Backbone:
């Protein structure tokens, strides 16, 4: 980021302009009709359209940073020709698998701060401090589950090489199925069942509940327990798949092939 300072502009553009454009389109289509706002509140659980959209886009940005950052970090090393050198070191294999997610936490929290300021300055929604702190707790509890997903993707690089198209597909699936862009209740019944098994569904829902709905952490306690279990399971699954694909890559020479 220091070497290419213009990348900072992306932290200002994506978290502000994109969600703001959707909020403005929603306001234009509804015409500030009280019936439209009431229908939205009934389905989403909050009358704050801007808050709902911005929290969803915060989750979208996190998914994008996750899948295109840690999820493809090994692919970047592979293209550069440095992956073999990394695997020749005596360092634990958990370092290249779980190290990149730690580095990507900073832009994730930067996006959250920028979006919070945009909500306040552009739409006059001042978020209470206690709600912000509870939201950070939800984010912290959801980190292992999210980066467990990233670890599974990182393992796929050793087996298939290019995973960009898969990243696009999975990100699109999460966006459509996990209530990021619209309430889960708007999905067909079978899609709602599928969404119930995806960690991002609970993270974005709990963020909205504690930040916009005034709920306590105890109210979303079962969801948080599910996220903890998913985090443990996905991290172990990612490490196990990584071990298997590393052995296969050593036999087939996939580490140096791109």
Residues:
């Amino acid at each position: 980021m220091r070497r290419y300072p213009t990348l900072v502009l992306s932290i200002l553009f994506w978290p502000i302009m994109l969600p703001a454009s959707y909020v403005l389109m929603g306001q234009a289509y509804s015409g500030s009709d009280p019936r439209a706002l009431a229908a939205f509140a009934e389905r989403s659980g909050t009358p704050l359209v801007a808050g709902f959209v911005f929290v969803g886009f915060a989750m979208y940005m996190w998914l994008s940073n996750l899948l295109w950052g840690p999820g493809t970090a090994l692919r970047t090393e592979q293209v550069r020709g440095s992956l073999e050198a990394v695997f020749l070191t005596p360092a634990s294999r958990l370092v290249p698998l779980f190290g990149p997610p730690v580095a990507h936490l900073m832009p994730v929290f930067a996006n959250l701060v920028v979006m919070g300021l945009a909500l306040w300055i552009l739409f006059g929604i001042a978020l209470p401090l206690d709600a912000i702190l509870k939201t950070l707790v939800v984010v912290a509890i959801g980190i292992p589950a999210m980066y467990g997903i990233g670890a599974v993707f990182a393992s796929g690089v050793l087996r298939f090489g290019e995973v960009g198209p898969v990243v696009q597909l999975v990100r699109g699936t999460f966006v459509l199925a996990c209530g990021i862009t619209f309430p889960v209740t708007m999905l067909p019944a079978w899609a709602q069942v599928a969404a119930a098994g995806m960690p991002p569904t609970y993270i974005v829902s709990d963020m909205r509940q504690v930040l916009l709905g005034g709920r306590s952490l105890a109210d979303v306690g079962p969801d948080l327990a599910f996220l903890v279990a998913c985090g443990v399971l996905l991290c172990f699954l990612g490490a196990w798949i990584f071990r298997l694909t590393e052995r296969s890559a050593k036999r087939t020479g996939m580490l140096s092939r791109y």
Observations:
- The chain has twelve helices and no strands.
- The mean pLDDT is 83.
